[in-house]
Amino acid sequence: MNTALNRSWxxxxxxxxxxxxxxxxxxxxxxxxxxxxxxxxxxxxSLPRSVVRFLKGGADxxxxxxxxxxxxxxxxxxxxxVLVLSPLLPDERRLVFEYGATPAISTxxxxxxxxxxxxxxxxxxxxxVKIDTGMGRFGxxxxxxxxxxxxxxxxxxxxxxGVFTHxxxxxxxxSYTHMQxxxxxxxxxxxxxxNILIHLHASAGLNYIKDGAPFNAVRVGLLxxxxxxxxxxxxxxxxxxxxxxFKARIASISRNxxxxxxxxxxxxxxxxxxxxxxxxxxxxxxxxxxxxxxxxLDETLVDIANASEAEQGDEVVFIGxxxxxxxxxxxxxxWTRRIPWETMVAIPRRVAREVVNVx
Length: 359
Ligand SMILES: *Cc1c(COP(=O)(O)O)cnc(C)c1O
Fold this sequence. Notes:
Layout (H helix, E strand, L loop, with lengths): L7 E6 H14 L5 E5 L1 H6 L2 H11 L3 E4 L2 H8 L7 E3 L10 H5 L2 E4 L2 H13 L4 E8 L7 E2 H12 L4 E8 L8 H18 L5 E3 L17 E4 L23 E12 L4 E5 L16 E4 L2 E7 L6 E4 L11 E8 L2 E3 L1 H7 L4 H6 L6 E5 L3
Parallel strand pairs: 1-18, 2-3, 2-10, 3-4, 4-5, 5-6, 6-7, 6-8, 8-9
Antiparallel strand pairs: 1-11, 11-12, 11-16, 12-15, 13-14, 13-16, 14-15, 16-17
Helix pairs in contact: 1-3, 7-8
The structure holds pyridoxal-5'-phosphate.
InterPro entries: Ala_racemase (IPR000821), Ala_racemase/Decarboxylase_C (IPR009006), Ala_racemase_C (IPR011079), Ala_racemase_N (IPR001608), PLP-binding_barrel (IPR029066)
Keywords: Isomerase, Pyridoxal phosphate
Protein name: Alanine racemase
């Protein structure tokens, strides 16, 4: 690791990432297929640096949002299936053959188009069918899903290798979640799905997995990066550890009669938002130091009266540990009025990704 040239950087704890995947997998019913959700550059954790760790931890398959993300995985891993969660535009569809991706479909138009593309190439295309059980995003509405699945089964160049749905409120509404699970289970049973992947659980949903059946795969995003989707309201199925820390340096210090102010080398261009709440802090020399606001493109002003011995060049922690103190990602998110998912993906490319704990 060489942070000497970095004015702001993220540290990615690869050992923690690998352990998280392993622990989550161990907590699942035996034989459950682990689909690692790595869209948005592995939620900002650098796909190229983390991809091997997902595999070592036991990921069986990857999921992303679009074909560009599939192509980035294919530069690194050729063997594992990659599911594309979002619908593909007509122009993008031929690429699934080029890159070996598994699309998710929910309309007959997609089925027709994929079938003819597959036929032209003399191929049989594996795909998953997305069912809407009450989220209201894309997906075939569950009341029409059995009929749709039967239609798609008739296409000779398509093979349904999975069916899935997405829970809208697994973190906060138990009865709605049970209703979605019932809707989905009914479709799966009526269709008589055999030897295909059946999945519904994302991070928050994992608490509902119990004995598994009829589900035999899960799609894990946030939790594998060490962050609970519940914000401390309930326990997660595995005791995971945060992977991402966000740091910068003291660029300069100015003193007046009232205050000692550090100019910290990260601003909006490093993803530091300007709307910090009043009590927001960073860590300097292991002490909590209040953010004064004054976030500009490249800098943030911090009152370092609590760490008056600090010097130019010192490390400043926005997210992570220092000394005995910790600002975890959910707390930082709370201060910036974001949810943890947003925090992770909002840290731009300018911020270097440095690997720690490689062992
Ligand atoms: C992003 C996404 C996930 C992962 O969700 P987490 O809450 O981060 O675990 C799972 N399924 C679908 C369809 C998604 O779009």
